[in-house]
Design brief:
Helix content: 40-55%
Number of strands: 13
Oligomer: single chain
Distance between the termini: 57 Å
CATH architecture of the largest domain: 3-Layer(aba) Sandwich
Strand content: 5-15%
Order of helices and strands: HEEHHEHEHEHEHEHEEHHHHEHEEEH
Largest sheet: 7 strands, mixed
CATH class of the largest domain: Alpha Beta
Structural class: alpha/beta
Length: 401
């Protein structure tokens, strides 16, 4: 067999063992149509139900009628007035000096780190940070990458002391290395929060930069969904805030907010911004309307949290272990991976769609069904899902009562 044939054989073998995703045949609201049947949507991250919000649909139709669909490179002929309006709206929403919008949260993380961090700088990263942060650090080619224990402030300070020693060696340009602490705001597998006040305190003590990826905090935490920095009252204390526009905002894209000088630098130097198309007209119009909705009222965010509180309380009464989540991300712990998969499959038979999370997404022995309620769920919807979990939990002896 030739090397070329062997290469494609390995790809075929990998594809044969890959998990095939369910195909969604409807909008992504409280229910999803899969295989022609409505299934309770217990696992998507459209936290506020904006994916099927009629105001967003109306805004898209109006913008398409007026401006068409496509854009282009932001630095050539692709910066549209809607992009400018969206960046201004996001900066106001986040109480920041300025914002830059990119085509995804992954791209935003890569831009945020790679653009300002070089080989001779220093990055200090939580061990459970998202894959996009890990890849962004790799992309920067930084040699001094220090990993601290998850949410462990003492471990972080140890790494800061180590970084302080490393900072005594100047870079080739004679400048002291830049030191950046980077963390998720909400950790997507367990739903726990970064200890941001303590991180800020240490950053000030050691005079280093801070970055938070608030993908699962945007539209969820803080007043009217303004994020984890607002939640902790730390405006102006975090240097780089990265947000995702495909979760609570239910569209696509990512953004970075910070001081105007930093955002201007990203617009001049970020390869992810310079060499990639801008968001389309429909995407941008929908996002503008989503930001407007959150700016007008806290109703959707309050409904989300009411649903979260109810779901967690009912799971707790049944005896399910939901870990240490502080957010809508609700892991129902089922350590045995095969049982977690079977549990999910049986839920699907009950028309409840909730996917299993297993290794390598989480360590072995930490499998779970990750449940995410949304503002689009009624109490009756939640009760239906809770009843299905109770029934299958007893069948599979996950629950012993």
């Amino acid at each position: 067999m030739s090397k070329r044939s062997d290469f494609y054989k390995k790809l075929d073998e990998a594809a044969a063992s890959a998990k095939i995703p369910r195909i969604i045949e409807s909008g992504e609201g409280a229910y999803l149509t899969i295989d022609g049947r409505p299934r309770l949507n217990f696992c998507s991250s459209h936290y506020l139900g904006l994916s099927v919000n009629p105001r967003l649909a109306k805004a898209v139709k109006g913008a398409v009628d007026k401006f068409g669909i496509g854009t282009g490179y932001r630095t050539l002929a692709g910066t549209h007035i809607l992009h400018v309006e969206l960046e201004k709206a996001l900066a106001r929403f986040k109480s920041a000096e300025a914002a830059i919008v990119l085509t995804g949260g992954y791209m935003a993380n890569c831009a945020a780190i790679q653009t300002i961090i070089g080989k001779e700088d220093i990055v200090i990263s939580d061990e459970l940070n998202h894959a996009s942060i890990i890849d962004a650090i790799r992309l920067s080619q930084v040699k001094n990458k220090l990993i601290y224990e998850h949410r462990n402030v003492l471990s972080l300070e140890e790494k800061l002391k180590e970084a302080e020693e490393l900072r005594n060696t100047p870079r080739a340009d004679g400048e002291a290395p830049t030191v950046l602490i980077v963390t998720d705001g909400v950790f997507s597998m367990d739903g726990d929060l970064a200890p941001l006040p303590e991180i800020v305190s240490l950053a000030e003590k050691y005079d280093v930069l801070t970055m938070v990826d608030d993908a699962h905090g945007e539209g969820v935490l803080g007043k009217g969904g303004r994020g984890i920095v607002d939640h902790f009252g730390l405006h102006g204390k975090i240097d780089i805030e990265v947000g995702t526009l495909s979760k609570a905002f239910s569209v696509m894209g990512g953004f970075i907010t910070g001081k105007k000088s930093l955002i201007d630098y990203y617009k001049q130097k970020s390869r992810q911004f310079l060499f990639s198309n801008a968001l389309t007209i429909p995407d941008t119009a929908a996002l503008l309307e989503a930001v407007k909705i959150l700016g007008e009222s806290e109703e959707l965010v309050k409904k989300l949290w009411d649903n979260v509180k109810y779901l967690k309380e009912e799971f707790g009464k049944l005896g399910f272990d939901t870990g240490h989540s502080e957010t809508p991300i609700t892991p129902v712990m089922i350590p045995d991976e095969d049982k977690a998969r079977e549990f999910s499959a049986k839920l699907f038979e009950e028309d409840v769609f909730a996917t299993p999370i297993v290794f390598p997404m989480v360590p072995k022995g930490k499998a779970r069904i990750r449940v995410i309620p949304s503002a689009s769920h009624s109490k009756e919807d939640l009760d239906r899902g809770i009843a299905a979990f109770a029934k299958i939990g007893r069948e599979l002896r996950v629950l012993l009562q």
